[in-house]
Amino acid sequence: MELHNRSVRTDVRELGALLGDVLAAQTSTAAYETVEDLRTAAIEYRRGDAASRDALEETIGGLSDAREDVVARAFTTYFELINLAEERERVRAVRNADADGSLHDSLEETVGELAEAGVGADEFEELLADVLIEPTFTAHPTEARRATVKAKLRSIATHLEELDECDMTDRERNAVWRDVTAEVTSLWGTRQVRQRRPEPEDEARNVQWYLENTLFDVVGDAYEEFEETISSEYPDADCPKLFEFRSWAGSDRDGNPFVTPEVTTKTLERQREIAVEKYRDRCKRLSAVLSQDGERYAVDGPLRESLAADAERFPTVVEEARERYPDEPYRQKLKLMRERLDRVDDVRPGGYPDGDAFLADLEVIAESLSVDRNDVVRTSFIDPLRRQVDTFGFVLASLDLRDHRENHTEAVAEAVAAEGVDYRGMDEAARAEFLTEAILQGDPIVDAEDPGDVSETTERVFRRFRELADWQAEYGTQAIDTYCISMTEEPSHVLEVLFLADQVGVVSLPDHCGIDVVPLLETESALNGAERILGTLFENEAYGTALETRGGVQEVMLGYSDSNKENGFLAANWDLYKNQRRLASFCREEGVTLRLFHGRGGSISRGGGPMNEALLALPNETVTGQVKFTEQGEAIAEKYANRRIAERELEQMLDAQIRARHEANEEPTEDVPEEWVDAMETMVPAARSEYRDLLSADGFVSYFGQATPIAVVEDLNLGSRPASRSGERTVEDLRAIPWVFSWTQTRLILPGWYALGSGLDAYLEEAGEEAGLATLREMYDEWPFFRTTLDNAALALARTEPEIAAEYADLADDDLRERFFPRLVGEYERGRELVLAVSGRDELIRRDWLAESLDRRNPYVDPLNLLQVDLLGRDDRTDDEERTLRLTVNGIAAGMKNTG
């Protein structure tokens, strides 16, 4: 049986042809022919039919301002459409593999293997009980695409699904294609580049869109699939809560002065509104289903008692329900549940206090249906809703607060100075002692409502903590219960946050602690000092009590982005790996459950790559079952815009986490041969030294500014957060996202591989070429960490195009170009050579579909790169040229499927 009517080639061909027709109709035949000439010239060079790109560059150099805009718009729109075609192909691949039983990384496969390996029902239930996966959406980087453009693309994607999966008459098919044509025409006329920076509320709404329109519905279906799969081998096993979604959008204050308490309040309000409205809609649908006649079915005790309680709470509404639904108890109950949902954010009493109370009413209905032998009705209609409520509650996604540790230190120091305490003059031990005593004493020592004549920073910090107390009172502790501290270096940085929370009543030890305080370790010194930081905290009376109150779970965030920017790809990955192992072993010895929060980005250099492989590559010691990770930028759309892909992503995450947890149970301490560790300890110092030598080299910052579009990236309206921390153009000060974004635009994806070749060479020189290569191949074959690290570097290397990068290098001063570009290319070539030698492959890409995607995209990205280079090389750009330049950035991001 054929599940689909189309193929990726059909979609690409027909969408490309349609775009050409729209281009000609909306501009001119001459403009269409210009784009075709560029497209053909790029393809001919890639195929080897042309000796150089001279024809391509000559055409671009002769374009008028208006024609440049058309070219940039044409190729950008092409990539937007081709991304939809490839998304549809992913759906086809998943459905076809599911149908023929060949789906890899599937829960069905894993459950079968565990049962075959002798894992009993009790052990399997314990395994599931350990698992909690927390994808955490962040606003940075924001997608390069405007929300308006995204909406049009989603509409086109829906039409492609209809054409692909539905049997249609010719007339129906033509009608759908007419709608696609209309949407593409509208897309062509829509501004691609934002005229203003998105505000934090826009970013929060972007995240909320995926939660509301995709994940909310997917979760119920996903659990149904999970339970069915599990029951095939473990029929009596209960499936616990496995996922919880979190967000930083609207609450991450670090480096973003625009994330105010008002923004956070509006984010919490809207998320509750979305969740409650979703449940109200589901109750209304259920009312159409649960029309059972009360005279034919016995109303069981719990349902009868629940209706009686409602009669006392809402006598008038109960009478209305009885009149409207006589002898239909389920409908009466649902009417009253809708009434309570209506009053959640209302001055009238009787609304549900939280999601748990709403869930309790659903449990009453589910139990009654089972008694009435309506299990199939319960399974189909009630259980998915119960899963949604269990996952999203009334909060939709719990918010994490975050700020830089310097702001907390300043706030504490200023506030206690008014009480005669010289906090600034204390050393670390004295600070910890003072904070501990202050937290443990009964009364606050500062007036949080009015901390006095203090700086703007201090007032802002105290206001946030005052609002935190109000947010938890209004929306529940679960709505906003985590506080992350950027650049944590000392135990006092964590105690300062606990102290501030204590001063406003969010913490009241020993009985209550309303927040998890999460140190973000992102520098080499912080990672290496993690045991000292945590050890001091665990031994601290105040913090130890708070930790116990929070269930003995310590969350630690690992910063992939800044670690990579500071140390380079190989050194950052190794530092993170070995420090994770140390952290986990230490926490286990201390009797504390570690939950690692992986601050991963979409790009390889920032921890990106396939999530299931990343989870399986984590050290066994760290796999407690609970795991948290960030989802950012275009990666959110790629994973969660399409319902079928989103469900597949959840399945792969769960599959990987169950496998990893089982492996950790079997082998709690990962057996890594000393020879492999020694190899890494030889490679990493050499790689770190080469990377840091590059960044500190005289003139490198100037070269970076001249040979990349960083100046354009800094001015783009991509996100609400400033591109750098202080506005200075230094590598240290620049945020990791624009750093990666700028190199990605040039097709020289340096952050994803630089110094890898130097590190591997250092080991081969020490161990000998033949013996060293044999050891590296053994490491690649048998060590998930090393294999994943090299495979991720291979992806970055495969997407690097030195010939295109050379065009950008030509923009730099001659002496800077000669000093740096050969060095970069030499490191690229050696890294590529060694990755192929170690992996034993002939090509960098090991997935055929990804290789096909790159082959399909590369010729179309080239004209955008060359146009961007041409525009960057002009000293005085007109307003039209500036707009086109920004459009090329969007187009290249769409073509590379990555911002940073």
Account of the 3D structure:
- With 900 residues, the chain is mainly alpha-helical.
- It is 66% helix and 6% strand.
- The protein has an eight-stranded parallel barrel with strand order 1-2-3-4-7-8-9-10, surrounded by seven helices. The chain has a two-stranded antiparallel sheet with strand order 5-6.
- The radius of gyration is 29 Å and the shape is globular.
- The mean pLDDT is 91.
Give the tags.
mainly alpha, two-stranded antiparallel ribbon, eight-stranded parallel beta barrel, 38 helices
Topology:
Blueprint (H helix, E strand, L loop, with lengths): L7 H19 L2 H19 L6 H8 L3 H36 L6 H10 L4 H10 L1 E6 L9 H19 L4 H19 L11 H34 L12 E2 L13 H29 L11 H13 L1 H10 L4 H14 L12 H17 L3 H18 L5 E7 H13 L10 H13 L15 H20 L4 E7 L4 H13 L3 E2 L3 E2 L2 E6 L2 H5 L1 H10 L1 H9 L3 E7 H8 L1 H21 L3 E7 L11 H6 L9 E6 L1 H8 L2 H24 L7 H23 L3 H8 L2 H6 L20 H10 L10 H12 L1 H14 L1 H15 L3 H8 L4 H26 L8 H25 L6 H18 L4
Parallel strand pairs: 1-2, 1-10, 2-3, 3-4, 4-7, 7-8, 8-9, 9-10
Antiparallel strand pairs: 5-6
